[in-house]
Design brief:
Elements (H helix, E strand, L loop, with lengths): L22 E6 L3 H5 L1 H12 L4 E6 L4 H8 L3 E8 L2 E8 L1 E6 L4 H9 L5 E4 L20 H8 L7 H14 L5 E5 L6 H14 L7 H8 E2 L3 E4 L7 H11 L7 E3 L4 E4 L16 E2 L3 H25 L5 H5 L2 H15 L11 H12 L8 H5 L2 H8 L1 H9 L5 H14 L9 H4 L6 H8 L5 H9 L6 H4 L2 H17 L1 H10 L1
Bound molecules: nicotinamide-adenine-dinucleotide and D-Mannitol-1-phosphate.
């Protein structure tokens, strides 16, 4: 049995060794992505230029990552996997841990403390408590209304941030930057809108709103690196490579990109030392990435889930999937984006094809297909409505929605199979509730489309809804390949 990774058992090179004891950053949502992305840029920034940028790692509820992180003296590994080979890096950049659900008051006090200059977050699309129809904070939803009624112990990240900001103002904690690293359109603006609307709905001390406006910034950012979930195979390979057991290694592709708006209220690490790009065109980069990569990713996942492909490369390796994605990219997505200056879309697409074919990484279809009710909102309505307003049917976007419905909310009597069953869908109960009593596939689809998952303009577009229903019917009666062929030939 090998020993556990720790500073006593591992004396090889680490990334970020100079991380100081005083953390200047706090990260909400210590899952895999942050540990293979922002943490790496921060480690490289400190290795090059120093700075008080150690990170407080905050888990939302699960103790799994934080307990192992603290137990391993904050060391963990990143296993980079690509067709070019593999490498493992040991990271040392986190300095404290907290669990938001158990240490809520402590968390808010930590965010309010003057040493913390930046709060980064990967709390998933779900964490923003946004109403899918209005795009506003879901103030009347169960989670936010419970938090507003109990300001001492909010459960949502948005409530926790709002409470912490009030404490920071009261305690003279100084300016703060809140940097969303989630896959959201205008991530900074979205985070700002949710926090602002929360603060407008709660009691705040005199002068607070002026301070908030002047002292708290929310830069937009485009984040990109495919980071799958950790498997036993990840742990086994890291054990072979390091000779010690890391309980929480992170697999990742080689590619990594971070484009950030340089709008930091209280300084920042020299992330450019790790390759981050500071740009005034971040929203254009966000759209490129969210549509071309993430939107296509969802289509690959649903087509894969319905055709027995358990990984993204296995799904993308099928000719019909590749054809649908090519059509989606060139006909439905690219014309919907004002590209950043100097950006070469075909080179980007060629790179995407390569990344989606990474069998060594083996990203799970079920991971990418999870949380669809929230992700499709970023990936479907705007480009679909653009084409519909031009009198054209966005066939592949309709296929994506049909695939999502067939996988996570299948009409009665249709079994989409085990890969679809492994997709996590937070709206599963709501989907079941809205579809109760649907007498036909068409009625089932109409009830979902009008059930509060999409903005009004798309939900009430009869032709689009009808097309989605036809494609679901074909998936059920003839299979996903025929549905894809129908969408391609239309
Ligand atoms: N994994 C990737 O390839 C990747 C790439 C780019 C961006 N992202 C972004 O990062 C997010 C997290 O991805 P990951 O790979 O770290 O996933 P993960 O499953 O490893 O971790 C998810 C994290 O989100 C937190 N979380 C989930 N729901 C939450 C909620 N309602 N409130 C607060 N926190 C919540 C969890 O506590 C956990 O820390 C994604 O949703 C996406 O927006 C991921
Ligand atoms: O992270 P999500 O859940 O928003 O989307 C799933 C994938 O598309 C996503 O994780 C990509 O792997 C990532 O965005 C690549 O940078």
């Amino acid at each position: 049995m090998t020993q556990a990774l720790s500073k006593a058992t591992y004396d090889g090179a680490v990334l970020g060794v100079s991380a100081p004891p005083t953390p200047g950053m706090l990260h909400l949502g210590i899952g895999n992505f942050h540990r293979a992305h922002a943490a790496v840029y921060t480690a490289k920034a400190m290795a090059a230029q120093g700075g008080d940028w150690g990170i407080v790692a905050v888990a939302n509820r699960s103790r799994r990552v934080v307990d192992s992180l603290a137990g391993q003296g904050f060391l963990y590994s990143i296993l980079e996997l690509s067709s070019a080979g593999e490498r493992v890096d040991v990271m040392d950049v986190h300095r404290e841990t907290l669990v938001a659900s158990e240490q809520t008051a402590e968390l808010m006090a930590r965010i309010a403390s003057p040493e913390i200059k930046i709060v980064t977050m990967t709390i998933s699309e779900n964490g923003y408590c946004r109403n899918a129809v209005t795009g506003d904070l879901d103030v009347d939803g169960d989670l936010v209304s419970a938090d507003l009624a109990n300001p001492a112990a909010p459960r949502t990240s948005i409530g926790q941030l709002a409470g912490a900001l009030i404490r920071r103002y009261q305690g003279d904690g100084g300016p703060l930057t809140i940097l969303s690293c989630d896959n959201l359109v205008s991530a900074g603006h979205t985070a700002q809108k949710m926090v602002t609307q929360y603060l407008q709905a709660t009691a705040t001390p005199d002068g607070f709103h002026d301070w908030f406006e002047a002292s708290v910034t929310f830069p937009n950012a485009m984040v990109d690196r495919i980071v799958p979930g950790t498997t036993d195979a990840t742990r086994a390979r890291v054990r072979e490579l390091l000779g010690v057991t890391d309980a929480i290694p992170v697999p990742a592709e080689r590619f990594s990109m971070w484009v950030i708006e340089d709008k930091f209220a209280a300084g920042r690490p020299a992330w450019e030392e790790g390759g981050a790009i500071f740009s005034d065109e971040v929203e254009a980069y966000e759209l490129v990435k969210l549509r071309l990569l993430n939107g296509s990713h969802s289509l690959i996942a649903y087509l894969g889930g319905l055709s027995g492909a358990d990984t993204i490369p296995a799904s993308f390796g099928q000719d019909f999937v590749r054809e649908c994605v090519t059509e989606l990219l060139n006909v439905e997505y690219l014309p919907s984006i004002d590209l950043p200056s100097g950006f070469d879309p075909q080179a980007y697409i060629a790179q995407l094809f390569d990344r989606w074919s990474n069998h060594a990484l083996g990203d799970a279809t079920a991971r990418v297909g999870s949380d669809g009710s929230l992700k499709l909102l970023q990936r479907v309505p705007d480009p679909a409505l653009r084409l519909l307003n031009l009198g054209e049917m966005p066939q592949q976007l309709a296929l994506m929605v049909a695939g999502w419905i067939a996988c996570v909310a299948p009409p009665e009597g249709f079994d989409p199979g085990p890969i679809a069953a492994a997709m996590i869908e937070p709206a599963k109960e709501k989907l079941a509730a809205v579809t109760t009593g649907a007498g036909s596939v068409r009625a089932h689809v109409e009830k979902i489309m009008r059930g509060g998952f999409f903005p009004e303009a798309l939900a009430t577009h009869d032709e689009f809804v009808g097309r989605v229903a036809e494609l679901v019917e074909i998936i059920i009666t003839h299979g996903v390949r025929d549905a894809a062929r129908t969408a391609l030939d239309a």
